[in-house]
Amino acid sequence: MARPLWGGRFRERPHPMLQAFSESLSVDRALAEVDLRASLAHAQMLRAQKLITAKELGALRKGLRAIERDLRADRLRLRPEDEDIHMAVEAELTRRVGEPARKLHTARSRNDQVATDLRLWSREAADRLMSAVRALQAAFVAAARAHQDLVIPGYTHLQRAQPVLLAHHLLAYVEMLDRDHGRLADCRKRLNRSPLGAGALAGTTLSIDRAATAEALGFDRPCANSMDAVADRDFCVELAAAAAVLCMHLSRFAEDAILWASQEWGLLRLPDAWSTGSSLMPQKRNPDLLELVRGKTGRVYGDLTALLTLLKGLALAYNRDLQEDKPPLFDAVRTALACLEVLTAFLPDARFDREAAQRLLQAGHLEATALAEHLVARGMPFRSAHEAVGKLVREAEARGCALADLPLETLRSADPGLDEDVRALLTPTAIVDAYRSAGSSARQQVGRALRRWARRLERGRKPRSRS
User: Fold this and answer.
1) Do you find a cis peptide bond into 317, omega within 30 degrees of 0?
2) Burial of 54 by CB count in 10 Å (0-12 exposed, 13-18 middle, 19+ buried)?
3) Interior CA angle at 463 toward 458 and 466, to 5°?
4) CA distances for 422 relative to 151, 372, 398, 431, 437, angstroms
5) For this structure, is 365 an active site residue?
6) Which one is catalytic: 22, 26, 262, 278?
7) Cα(427)–Cα(19) distance, integer angstroms
8) Residues in a beta bridge with 269
């Protein structure tokens, strides 16, 4: 077994159990590509500062690029005895190019190396999540446009409340996802600082150019404090928190869709391709996809809690505890991405039942608020109108009918000036058409929102730079 690259201070090799317990290669190999990129930027800076020769830089560049090609072709064989991906890459580079590889770690510690790689990975993860969020928004907008005139009950307290357009309901999730996109963009902006060159914690006595490596790697600037640079994992917490809030929104949609797909609602027909059956009950059509999205949200919450707990009470600067930052971060991103992608694929196949929507609109006196507001428009104080319509609802419940089906003389108990025309105002379609406030479920407002989102999402399809 080869001696570790840090083994000069020790007479004995690490105990096999310590090696097995402390290895992270099985997890952090996901950082291999960004580690190679950061190492090349570091080597180029070392040459510019005359800390290595042009010939040594050439050898390092050739070796790093060869390793990258093998990595992408899945030909790179990492050795179990290497502690982590950073040591594995350096060991492999040493095998390939010899002595120049021993100079690559000049003015660099694994502490700033790991922190740099993790920021590079997190930046790309934020980009992937933002792109997936936009794709799901586009799927919601397309579904809303396809059902633009379908009126359904809107709910509060899981009780039927007022008629709304299904498109308006779906666009509510587009707004939620936009906030998720904003959180991810904000996280990305804040994490885009380079720790490279901070060393173990105190910097280096060698003349290096941290601004050059920051620019080469697409960072906005170097981290300002070397201790904070290697100890900071706020960006991991922020990215996991953004993923947790995002999954919370996806879980809320999943719950809506599960209810809509139930036989009690019957509003959503689950396609065969997105349904599962029962091993016992032949009739079952189960919404496993939606239930898994709902369940995986708890998993991402756990990832966030693990990161927060990991960081609580850690003294500055670097501690080996930070090896445990990657499993929850990687899992949170991977899970959120999977949920986004599966819902984006599911939405175009979702079918809504108009007859079920009509049935759901018939019960619950969803027209009550519209009637109260009609009385207000005729000059009645709102509290008086609310009380009067409440009495009419009580009468309609006793008769087992809708408010519009009450006798005219009963309706006139609320306002003697009402005539037969009031009945036409109390249909679900008429109520939706009567909404006036900005951001409401009126057809005009929803149509405007659909056009606005179509323009925004089209602009968002422009490619962004890698940095």
Assistant:
1) yes
2) exposed
3) 150
4) 20, 12, 21, 12, 21
5) no
6) 278
7) 72
8) 351
Residue 278 is a catalytic residue: yes
Give the residue carrying structure tokens 């996991």: 240
Count of all residues that appear for the chain in the document: 467
Handedness of CA 326, 329, 332, 338 (dihedral sign): negative
H or E element: which one contains 285? none
**CATH: 1.10.40.30, 1.10.10.10, 1.20.1260.110, 1.10.1510.10. Which one for 368-426?**
1.10.40.30
Q: Report residue 346 as tokens.
A: 């599911």
Q: Which two tokens stand for residue 77?
A: 């064989």
* Residue tagged active-site, from 15, 157, 279, 465: 157
* Residue-by-residue DSSP string for 397-437: HHHTS-GGGS-HHHHTTT-TT--GGGGGGGSHHHHHHH--S
Both structure tokens of 64: 């790093």
Token code pair at residue 140: 């919601």
Q: Taking each helix axis as running N to C, give the angle between helix 110-146 and helix 326-346, from 0 to 180 degrees, rounded to the nearest 10.
A: 20
CATH number of the structural domain 111-359: 1.20.200.10
Please state, as a whole number, how many other Cβ atoms lie within 10 Å of the Cβ of residue 90.
20
What are the sequence ranges of the domains in the chain?
A: 7-106, 111-359, 368-426
Q: Are 195 and 110 in contact (CB under 8 A)?
A: no
Would you give per-residue pLDDT tens digits along the chain (467 residues)? 455 555 556 677 777 777 766 677 778 889 999 999 999 999 999 999 999 999 999 999 999 999 999 999 999 888 777 778 888 999 999 999 999 999 999 999 999 999 999 999 999 999 999 999 999 999 999 999 999 999 999 999 999 999 999 999 999 999 999 999 999 999 999 999 999 999 999 999 999 999 999 999 999 999 999 999 999 999 999 999 999 999 999 999 999 999 999 999 999 998 888 888 888 888 888 889 999 999 999 999 999 999 999 999 999 989 988 999 999 999 999 999 999 999 999 999 999 999 999 999 999 999 999 999 999 999 999 999 999 999 999 999 999 999 999 999 999 999 999 999 999 999 999 999 999 999 999 999 999 999 999 999 998 765 454 44
DSSP 155: E
- Is the full-model pTM beyond 0.90? yes
CATH number of 7-106: 1.10.275.10
**If we measure between CA atoms, which residue out of 413, 42, 397, 29 comes closest to residue 214?**
42
